[in-house]
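To close the chapter, one final illustration. This time we ask the reader to focus less on the individual chains and more on the assembly as a whole: which components sit near each other, and how the overall shape emerges from the parts.
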Amino acid sequence: MIDQQRPNIAMERQSCDPTAIEFRDVAYSLPNGQPLLAGLNLQVERGETLILLGRSGSGKTTTLKLINRLLTPSGGEVRVNGAPTAGSDAIRLRRSIGYVIQEVGLFPHFTVERNIGLIPRIEGWPPERICARVAELLHLVGLEPALASRYPHQLSGGQRQRVGVARALAADPTILLMDEPFGALDALTRDQLQREFLALQQRLNKTVVFVTHDLREALRLGSRIALLEAGRLVTVLPPRDFLRSDDPLAAAYVQAFGGGLDSVADRGAL
Amino acid sequence: MNLLHFFLQNHDQVLELTLEHLWLVGISTLLAVLIGIPLGIMVAHWPVWNKPVLGTANIIQTIPSLALFGFLLPVPWLGDRADRLAILALTLYALLPVIRNSYTGIRGVDPAVLEAGRGMGLSDRQLLWQVELPLALSVILSGVRVAVVVSVGLATIAAAIGAGGLGEFIFRGLAMVNNQLILAGAIPAAVLALSADFCLGWLERRLRPR
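The assembled structure is written out below.
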């Protein structure tokens, strides 16, 4: 019996545990008691891109914020890298997770360089190392080194979002949370950033949880799609299966987005 | 031309009263900043305190200045020296614009910026010092600017209770029905107010985030 238990305990602590994020019967209600999320059970595997798909108010952003403890579950347990988030230091947890939001939220009074280097600086990295890291990240997200000294208001929407991604990657987190990061961009820029995201993800192999309401984006970027509706998880399927799903809501989604989705689901083929 | 004459003849007294005036305004503004900015930050973060704090500051503002000086006169330690009393009264008047602008400035910070900061793992303290205060600074400063300009004017009344300052000339002039004496107090006070307004306005524009 002892022999059987030991490997289990070890598995939980080990970083080779294939589960990066786990929701165990998670519920979340607003302080006034209104439930936003109920009975959520979901596992995100290391290195995958899990898409949270759903319409506004379906609970996808709530789900995302439960991971980095911007929200605390009112029931159940969220585990990140095997440890329950409730027991960990929220600040430490957040610094180990990259976070990108639609409005980007770049600090307007900081240059691009300082925006990207903020967490490394707070973490006490030596200046040369921060400098090198910023240069590396700018290159990674396809921005000119000359942009480092610019302020956010001097950048285009696409450039700002790239800086947002670079900033989230600064301290080299293993997990990246993205809340409709390309939602506010024009179609052309969005297409380009999606393409770059796929290329980047192939290189970096982060665990990504990505919120969107755009099925096309979900099919293109996701390794699995979790469909949420009214605070409940409807189904979790890989893109190809999602298209053929007989779940009525998934089917309604596929129908609403019309034809040509098959080629999109063929990761990055578009 | 007689006025110019007066300034030339009494330049050391004009200078002395101007410095006294500046001292009253400077100390009271400093106190108002030290009390008002933290209060403004507090009510911005805990809206429950919003009404009581801003309400109190508002009520103080409605008390006529001469009456406030009079009210405070019998207070033991304060009443001993007129300048203490004047500084307290001026501080109370300066509080409202400082608190209100600190509140407005902090509340005006883009929520997306705050959410991103929090999500990145900034602590509340880091968020305040690195993000909220720098972004609110120009709004806070414009409150300080209003407070200073109002204080320069109000401080002339402090002479009524013997706290000194440029109001001395004004009250003496009033008593002696001497317009020149009144102007000798009013003109330097106006110059002080205008230059403070100009300097702080310049600083405010420089600190405004793009």
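Chain B touches chain A at residues 110, 112-123, 126, 130-131, 134-135, 209-210 (CB under 8 Å). The longest helix of chain B spans residues 11-45. With these observations in hand, you are ready for the problems at the end of the chapter.
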